[in-house]
Amino acid sequence: ATANIGVVGLAVMGSNLARNLASREGNTVAVFNRSRAKTDDLVAEHPEAGFVPSFSYEEFAASLQKPRTAIIMVKAGAGTDAVIDELVRVFEPGDIIVDGGNALFTDTIRREKAVRETGINFVGMGVSGGEEGALHGPSLMPGGSDESWVTLGPILRTIAAVAEGEPCVTHIGHDGAGHFVKMVHNGIEYADMQLIAEAYDLIRRGTGKSPAEIADVFAEWNHGELESYLIEITAEVLRQVDAETGKPLVDVIVDQAGAKGTGAWTVQTALDLGVPVSGIAEATFARSLSSHPEQREVSGSLPGPLESLTVDDADAFIEDVRLALFASKIVAYSQGFDEIRAGAAQYGWDIDLGAVSKIWRAGCIIRAQFLNRIADAYAQTPDLAVLLTAPYFVEALERAQGSWRRIVATAATGGIPSPAFSSSLAYYDGLRAERLPAALIQGQRDFFGAHTYKRIDRPGTFHTLWSADRTEVEAEDTH
Ligand code: 6PG
């Protein structure tokens, strides 16, 4: 046995992670793939890596030092279970199996429980940063047992991205905690992308600027408080010209957004937990709306606003859009972190929210300067109930809210869809409201279903006898 770590599944993500591991001092990497050709190619193309190839699970296990540690990099789903079964067959108690795919956290909880019974450790690990990240430094979100972290931690620290001298990896929590956090990362990614897309659309329709000109706007924004990977690549995409037609590439791409499911999982899970992640939900639904051409086709005759959008001062409008984007982004991240907090409480994970924001500062898709502010907020108040109530964000929202309101109003009167901008503002105003019309909903529920209500002036649970003399009686609490 010569290798201290192994990788199973040598498609792009797996190969790149294996190469990243092999490039770090002290690592010898065993590699295995179901079809032999991928293994042969990788070993031939990267002699410098010193890979230890194997062509059966038995050989793979024999090439690993104990405790054997293997990272599975296959497409999430049934394939993952098949590989786990094989590794459990050839591994021994104390060994460590890591799933680096985008698994649903409830699958990870199930798998961890089953594998633990054999004495083998199972770690579900979120890996963010795409192909480049896997090769040069991803953001890593491992769950699993404390025992496995002892072996895994030092190895993962060497390959993770580095933010201000700190590796972007931390032990998130037990069993499915890592995949849960990765799921929410992707939900925030959806919201951030939708917000950027809405900003682009408003600027384009409002000012008539070309995609290349708007690329300059985003490039400039990337020097300020919005600095982030997603803003940076937005400028690149907008600047790209299609070689065939000479048009901006963005005008040639079909306007139907795909989705592999992690955004939907974030929303489904939030619904179960009762956490309002409205920005993430709107972003997910906006992708669904875009990708139903048959519905969009039949809606061609729907009436629009009488006046189209007119913008007098383009620069002022663009600055309003920037601040609306910043405010909505604060809401999206705040909602995401609230979901992690609620998930941790529900599943019994001890998740350090500040540490999560820190490991997202580099390597991952939502990497941004802004995450330092989130880390500060949790450092100051670790049990912060709503992230956006931290002083820095309150100050930012105060500064941005005028612009935010103007943009949402302008979009509405101009008939420009801005679901993420407007739902974020509605969420914010809902949070702020001293009284919500939820009181009326309680009245309606009590009317048709005797669902009862609480009073503001005394304890207890009450019901009005709506179909009799409408007097109020004390009732049992039915929620
Ligand atoms: C990452 C990305 C990565 C992947 C998503 C995209 O963190 O590296 O989030 O996981 O790009 O699968 O998701 P959609 O295909 O659903 O947009």
TrEMBL record:
Q: In which pathway does it act?
A: Carbohydrate degradation; pentose phosphate pathway; D-ribulose 5-phosphate from D-glucose 6-phosphate (oxidative stage): step 3/3
GO molecular function annotations of the record: phosphogluconate dehydrogenase (decarboxylating) activity
Q: What is its EC number?
A: 1.1.1.44
A Pfam family for this UniProt protein?
Answer: NAD_binding_2
Q: What class of enzyme is it?
A: oxidoreductase
Specify the domain of life of the species encoding this protein: Bacteria
Q: Which family does it belong to?
A: Belongs to the 6-phosphogluconate dehydrogenase family.
Q: What does this protein do?
A: Catalyzes the oxidative decarboxylation of 6-phosphogluconate to ribulose 5-phosphate and CO(2), with concomitant reduction of NADP to NADPH.
Fill in the subunit field for this protein. Homodimer.
Name of the featured protein = 6-phosphogluconate dehydrogenase, decarboxylating
Q: Which species is this record about?
A: Microbacterium rhizosphaerae
